[in-house]
Specification:
Number of strands: 4
Radius of gyration: 19 Å
Strand content: 5-15%
Number of helices: 6
Strand order of the largest sheet: 1-2
Largest sheet: 2 strands, antiparallel
Length: 170
């Protein structure tokens, strides 16, 4: 809708399997792009909804080549981040026996048990220094990362009414 798979390939390169010899690509294929771009657009629309509940991106769509390119690049960057978070989630789940919850990943490997008060503690993964692995483990970090991508790409981009998209007003 705001970005196509061709746009993604133009910005980040073809998927690893489709890249020409010596080419790049990060593994996002067309099916994965379709799924992740839907999520990215929903997150972006949520971030651009003003205090009255009006989605500025839908009600006042930007015009002009630069503004449209900024939205396209924003969606593509969010897709790339969501893909990297997914990779980290898969690695954490496989390595540490984690389960996915609405607030992030939770340990499912029991680290210790106390018989007195029936206390059970779960082993938590060492997520490392990667922002994406921290985002895979913590929903708040994930949300802040995606919001910062939107801020970086859409700062100064105005809707058709001339008001910046990021302005959520009163």
């Amino acid at each position: 809708m705001f970005a196509s798979f061709d746009d993604y390939c133009r910005i980040y390169g073809a998927p690893a399997g489709d890249a020409p010899e010596g080419g790049g690509g990060d593994g996002v294929d067309e099916a994965r792009f379709a799924r992740l771009s839907w999520d990215a657009v929903r997150l972006l629309e949520s971030a651009l909804t003003d205090a009255r509940g009006v989605c500025r991106l839908r009600e006042f769509p930007p015009v002009g080549e630069d503004a449209l390119e900024a939205i396209c690049r924003c969606v593509c960057a969010m897709v790339r981040a969501l893909y990297r978070i997914e990779l980290c989630e898969s690695a954490i789940e496989a390595t540490f026996g984690m389960t996915r919850t609405s607030s992030g990943l939770r340990g499912s490997v029991i680290a210790s048990v106390s018989a007195g008060n029936e206390f059970v503690s779960y082993r938590n993964p060492e997520t490392g220094d990667s922002l994406y692995s921290r985002a895979a483990h913590d929903r708040d970090v994930r949300d802040r990362l995606l919001y910062s991508i939107a801020l970086d790409h859409l700062r100064g981009v105005c809707g058709s009414d001339g008001v910046p998209l990021l302005y959520c007003g009163d």
